[in-house]
Amino acid sequence: MSIAATFEIPFEQFLDPKGKPVKDLPKWADKEELLKLYKMMTKVRVFDTKAIALQRTGKLGTYASCLGHEAAHVGIGAAMIEEDAFCPMYREYGAQFMRGVKMSEVLLYWGGDERGSNFSGPQHDFPWCVPIATQYLHAAGSAMAFKYRGEKRAAVTVIGDGGTSEGDFYEALNAAGAWQLPFVGVTVNNKWAISVPLSKQTACETLAQKGIAAGMDCVQVDGNDIVAVRDVMQNALHKAREGKGPTFVEMLTYRLHDHTTADDARRYRSDDEVEAERKKEPLIRLRQYITDQGWWDEDQEKVLLEECKKEVDAAVVEYQSIEAPGVEDMFDYHFEELTDPLSEQREIAIKEARRNG
Ligand SMILES: Cc1ncc(C[n+]2csc(CCOP(=O)(O)OP(=O)(O)O)c2C)c(N)n1
Known about the structure:
The protein has helices at residues 31-56, 70-79, 93-98, 103-110, 134-149, 167-178, 198-201, 226-241, 271-278, 282-292, 298-321, 329-332, 340-355, and strands at 11-12, 85-87, 155-160, 183-189, 192-193, 196-197, 217-222, 247-252. It is α/β, with parallel strands linked by helices. It has a 6-stranded parallel sheet with strand order 1-7-8-4-3-2, with helices on both faces. It has a two-stranded antiparallel ribbon with strand order 5-6. Helix 1 runs antiparallel to helix 10 (282-292), helix 4 packs across helix 11 and helix 5 packs parallel to helix 6. It binds thiamine diphosphate. Thiamine diphosphate binds at residues 130-132, 160-163, 188, 190, 192-194, 255, 259. Its cofactor is thiamine diphosphate. Heterodimer of an alpha and a beta chain. Residues 38-321 form the Dehydrogenase E1 component domain.
């Protein structure tokens, strides 16, 4: 038997877990840029910690933490341009803050108010997508529209490792590959899909290789190394906007918090595993690198944490001061026209809401 085809999956990393460069950093990774990325990752972490505290004290419905994913998310956002479209799942706040989504909007959404998805910043981005994998189809569809209209824009979407087992995921990749769409699909491989470990999810050696079957360039990246994430994303996006086809990117990272605040990961993950992964988390290594360069010190760190805390606290005040939507919204935004029984129910709901204050 001869070989019909062979494939390789490249792996990209610039900073090792201790913040030491494994090769020369790309030109764009200068002091100004790396400090900007570090500050944003820190802001995301402070926000995440506060959001969990809000949920624990009954001020948010539930919340999906992004602890440990800061480099993956901020790196994605940093590589995108305004004209691109982002189709997120439900925990990519770092990418969204980079694109102008407000912290108070994220809080509003997890507080159970759909108006949080009406972003004041990016008007072309999609709302959070909790049904796993459907966002991949939204991105493929958007990318198809960009190509059809001859626009130099790309659609970016994110899915978890578990999500790559879904049919929608494969269908979107197939369409993006077959039609050579300006599409960049990311899988943030955090090793767990709630309680299902990667080893039970797939027999694939890498998730990146799932894109090979769709005929697209595939790459695996150290998702805790923001330099690698941003660089790979920048290249993939440039290629997409130039009409040179889609890319599928696997980012290796780890979910350091529970899946959401409704879950207790201690029931299925060992403390040893989590502690080993904590040592590789993204903020430690970038802080070490910028400190080694003489660009960062403890005093700057203290000032930054104070600034982030203030900004997050202000967002919480803003979130808490937004008046709850009227009960009529659930009728007005679901139906073009109300049938008689629904109109009646709408009136009853309004009266009841008034009566209960
Ligand atoms: C279509 C669909 N099936 C099941 C669920 C329930 N569900 C919510 S999150 C989740 C696991 C997702 O894991 P993964 O894709 O690895 O992403 P992660 O949350 O770990 O980042 C599941 C099964 C859902 N939201 N949508």
